[in-house]
Design goal:
Layout (H helix, E strand, L loop, with lengths): L2 E5 L2 E3 L5 E8 L8 E6 L6 E6 L6 E2 L7 E6 L4 E6 L8 E7 L10 E5 L2
Parallel strand pairs: 2-10
Antiparallel strand pairs: 1-3, 3-8, 4-5, 4-9, 5-6, 7-8, 9-10
């Protein structure tokens, strides 16, 4: 059974940083391409960053240079380091496969506000 458990969100001031974690229960984590998504109020869910089993990471234009996705294949965990946060980054953040499955977790709320 596929399961994603996100954590690490919170309230942060503009310009601040957060590190999100996602513990993934998938059958072959090390070979899976994974991603972070986010959904802001009144908006559709969007892809933020993706990381393949090998090769280059990809980022939405809105977060390039500020966010970094990484993975630990021993811990079956995906991370999202978010720096220079902006109010527009406020959203619920989710992880999933890079081609998203239906198995969405609860997500973790990130609020950027002064």
């Amino acid at each position: 059974q596929v399961q994603f458990v996100e954590s690490g969100g919170g309230l942060v001031q503009p310009g601040g940083s957060l590190r999100l974690s996602c513990a993934a229960s998938v059958s072959d984590f090390s070979r899976s391409a994974l991603a972070w998504y986010r959904q802001a109020p009144e908006k559709q869910r969007e892809l933020v960053a993706s990381i393949p089993s090998r090769g280059y990471t990809n980022y939405a234009d809105s977060v390039k240079g500020r966010f970094t996705i990484s993975r630990d294949n021993v811990k079956n965990t995906v991370y999202l380091q978010m720096n220079s946060l902006k109010p527009d980054d406020t959203a619920v953040y989710y992880c999933n496969f890079a081609i998203a499955s239906r198995s969405w977790g609860q997500g973790t709320q990130v609020t950027v506000s002064s």
